Amino acid sequence: MRAAWFDEFGTAKDVLQVGELERPSAGPGEVLVRLHTSGVNPSDVKKRAGSFPNLLDDGLVIPNSDGAGIIEAVGEGVDAIRIGERVWVYQAQFARRFGTAAEYVAIDAHRAPRLPENATFEVGACLGIPVMTAHRAVFADGDVTGKTILITGGAGRVGHYAIQWASQAGARVIATASNDTDKAACESAGAHSVVNHRGDKVTAAVIEAAGGVGVDRVVDVEFGANLPVSVEVLKVGGVIATYSSTQIPEPKLPFFQMMYKDLTVRTIIVYAMPEAAKLQAITDIETALLNDSLQHRIAEVLPLEEIARSNELIEQGSIRGAVILATE
Fold first, then answer.
1. Which of 43, 169, 253, 260 has a CA between 20 and 30 Å from the CA of residue 27?
2. Is 0.70 topped by the overall pTM?
3. Nearest CA-CA partner of 16 in 318, 299, 302
4. Domain 2-126+296-326 homologous superfamily, CATH
């Protein structure tokens, strides 16, 4: 099969290779998916750069956890009725070497949920890390109906979906953005207010947008950098649900300030989500797809041979929306 891989860490153009590898087969409890698309996420790019030093201990890695395609074969214990089913794939390159940047992937049948006919394979490749992360961030701490939620980086891959999940579930959403284009994207997704996160008046602007009483929860893209504002704008008993802290990876916590407000910090990564939370996310995603109620922002669709370029686009940080590889 045609596949991309790396067997050493380094820059995308130096270590990513494309060529022929042996096609996998479906083992017990697995399905063999003929992939049409593969989603490229920041975590995939960081792994290639060396964020997990032990990743290559057992040999080369086919990157990317998300994708979509059609089941061609099933392993022992999987109903053959699934052959021919359109699916989206998540968690393909976690605790295993072989991800979705290839023509085929063999994966646990539970990691290949059904993809409705009205959803494209490009959309299917967006559903794993971005949509499931957003779902967990919004709903992990209970019903959001009537809550006020601040979503930082609302025009980003996860933030864009978080706005939609929260607003469609009955929350009042305040998003942050830094320019008119991103502001418009947040408003289109369902944000009731959008605050410019640059400058020294962010806290006052968020509290004003929240009616002067603060917010119930924060869904946060930059935990360390945004922590001073988050602590100020949250009500007593509030929650910070965060999925990244790139700018300040080891933030200093204002412990007593947080304690006096009884704040909760929830860190989120799809791989560590409880299985029950994954199943609920999958159920809600299918419903949303069937109802065509989610907006999807796809910035680039590139051929597999341009995987290095896809990684560079993610690293540059200048695009909004998903970067997808066409693997067929």
1. 43
2. yes
3. 302
4. Medium-chain alcohol dehydrogenases, catalytic domain (3.90.180.10)
